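User: Sequence for Glutaryl-CoA dehydrogenase below. Tokens please.
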Amino acid sequence: MTFEPISADFYGFSTLLSDNEKEGLQRIRDYMESEVRPVINEYWEKAEFPTHLVPGFMATDVARYAFPETSPFENSAVFRGFAALEMSRVDASMATFIGVQEGLAMGSIGVAGSAEQRAEWLPKLASGEVVGAFGLTEPLSGSDSAKGLRTTARREGDEWVINGAKRWIGNATFSDITIIWAKDEADGQVKGFIVPTSTPGYSATKIERKISLRSVMNADITLENVRVPESLRLQNARSFRDTARVLRLTRAQVAWSSVGVAVGAYDAAVAYAQEREQFGKPIAQHQLIQDHLSRCLGNITASIAMCVRVSQMLDEGTQRDEHSALAKGFCTARMRETVAWAREAMGGNGIVLDYEAARFFADAEALYSYEGTHEMNSLIVGRSITGHNAFV
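Assistant: Structure tokens for Glutaryl-CoA dehydrogenase:
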């Protein structure tokens, strides 16, 4: 196998990966190109998820890299970031599926579960035998989840009774389990629960009429006297600080995914510019088009550099909330610029799904907002800069 950096990796950052990591990245790239790209526009337009692709997708080991119980080889956070980029440059919805499956569902169990819970659930999630979802956001609680959760959990003997509602929960229309975060009525602390979706009182309803990440199966969840045993409470989740540990792992991954979305739009614009003729020559020969494309590449290159460093810091154990927040805020903002320039370079065809830039342009809006809005990430960084909390 010969691994080559993608053309948008202008400075060749992916050459930092080990040979095993390059092989793993190539498997993901090959599957995304051969199986996902040919069908994803159709599924995006229908607002459906290509569930038939999940077994083959998981067979690439795409979700086996984060934890010792499931990792096929020692790998770095930089590798996992490039995996998110490779997925997102073809389709951000498939990358979001894995982000929820591995980053949030597996991440919750990996970070806050007991050794027994890790051994039971992580291999099943990594193989795709079990599909997971992550229930934190609520209809009236998003950015203020640390203090504003309304979903409650009450212990009765060896069971917990959960009541409340969740919103924007990815994978939730077809997940087998959902990690539900709820406030313990006894001590007011946030705790996590592995909730099988077949449990009486649990229901999930697909959110319709989205204009972004249309293939992601987001759902509204209601929980009415949902009973789960103590054995399904995440044993090391004692407060929202433990929830935040999970989010710290995934926030930088969203930064990587946003770079992938920018790369997808950029690649589509470059290909289009080579073929589209105006005034008797390919528009790639026009100065303004070259300026658009060079600015796109500048944004992508700067964002990859930031993502590589913040991932290295995660491996080193030096990454803090403000580091991942700066990466997420900066990279999603640059993504927004890049997809707009790429779409603009394609003129009217830029809003037609057949030319792909339109899908990346629309999907960028969701990545800009989830895993912490741009404003919330700015305030996390601002608190680090000034020492003052400006959230309220």
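The domain at 132-232 is CATH 2.40.110.10 (Butyryl-CoA Dehydrogenase, subunit A; domain 2).
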